[in-house]
Amino acid sequence: MDTKNFKVNNEKSTIDWIGRKVTGAHNGTIGVKEGNFTFEDGKPVSGKFIIDTRAIKILDIEDAETNAQFASHLTSDDFFNSDQFPEAVFEITHAEPGDQNLYYVTGDLTIKGITHSINTSLHIVTTDNAAALEAKIVVDRTKFNIKFRSSNFFTNLGDTLIYNNFDLNIHLVAEAN
Question: Which residues does the UniProt record annotate as the domain Lipid/polyisoprenoid-binding YceI-like (predicted)?
Fold first, then answer.
């Protein structure tokens, strides 16, 4: 059995996010703190990466003051409560191989100390020295006690409503260790 361990390079890895509301959408990036993956015979058997919830950037708001206010709001208790929960974690619990470097993955996502199982597909390309992993995770924020302007918890929001699901588009670059 050929076992290889890979460590995520946080400087080369990115997570893009998209959040939608009635009147449009916002997008940005969130930092990857660290991570690692283990492969046996070229297939993922375990993996985990940690998101730095304090490293949220907004890309679609150009005004510096408005951008800073929005970033501060995303790290507040209305959203990620980054002072108390500076990290969010995704850990693979099961992976089934598909076609052409695609794996069907079940993993535990923890945000604000709350963990839920998430299903996604993971595209992985490995060489002897590196691995590139791509995934899109659709997160229902209300499952993680992120209720701000959610129609599940508030009425008469009109055009201030924020949709419950947000997307994380994940691109991790890992190096053999």
Answer: 5-175
Contact (Cβ atoms closer than 8 angstroms) between residue 140 and residue 168:
no
Biggest CA pair distance of the chain: 59
Domain that holds residue 170: 3-176
Phi then psi for 157, rounded to 5 degrees? -80, -25
Cβ of 121: how many Cβ atoms within 10 Å? 14
Residue 144 has pLDDT above 80, yes or no: yes
How many domains in the chain? 1
- Tokens 């060489």 map to which residue? 127
Residue 98 amino acid letter: G
> How large a percentage of the chain has pLDDT more than 70?
93
Strands in the chain per DSSP E:
3-8, 14-21, 24-40, 43-58, 87-97, 102-111, 114-126, 130-140, 162-176
Give the count of beta carbons closer than 10 Å to the beta carbon of residue 64: 8
**CATH code, domain with 92:** 2.40.128.110
CA distances from 113 to 77, 82, 88, 108 (A): 13, 11, 8, 12
Q: pTM of this prediction?
A: 0.90
Going from the C-alpha of 26 to that of each of 7, 89, 131, 133, the distances in angstroms are 31, 22, 30, 24
3 state SS of 172: strand
